[in-house]
Specification:
single chain
Length: about 110
């Protein structure tokens, strides 16, 4: 099992930046992969970015070149740096840990105003 706590959401103007953090309750080396997902009002949860245990990353096409996922293994924390934010990035962002089963954080709201 793992507990995940997200932070860093907020309100930002279009073109601005935010950095989300996800702190895990266990070593992230012991986790197969960690990722970020988001859910906008009235829409299904969608994939944003993922980092594997080996450090490989992949991104949704809609965020490539704008978002960067990274990790600090000493702090058991995964980050999502979000630049050039757009109103369509507005959503609740969830951190996920893959351990044969997906564990989810509580989510953090990101609102991008036009």
């Amino acid at each position: 099992q793992v507990q995940l706590v997200e932070s860093g959401g907020g309100l930002v103007q279009a073109g601005g930046s935010l950095r989300l953090s996800c702190a895990a309750s266990r070593s992230i080396f012991s986790i197969d992969a960690m990722g970020w997902y988001r859910q906008a009002p009235g829409k299904q949860r969608e994939f944003v970015a993922r980092i594997s245990g080996g450090g490989s990353t992949n991104y949704a096409d809609s965020v490539k070149a704008r978002f960067t996922i990274s990790r600090d293994t000493a702090k058991n924390t995964v980050y999502l740096q979000m630049n050039s934010l757009k109103p369509e990035d507005t959503a609740v962002y969830y951190c996920a840990a893959e351990l044969g089963y997906y564990y989810w954080g509580q989510g953090t709201q990101v609102t991008v105003s036009a």
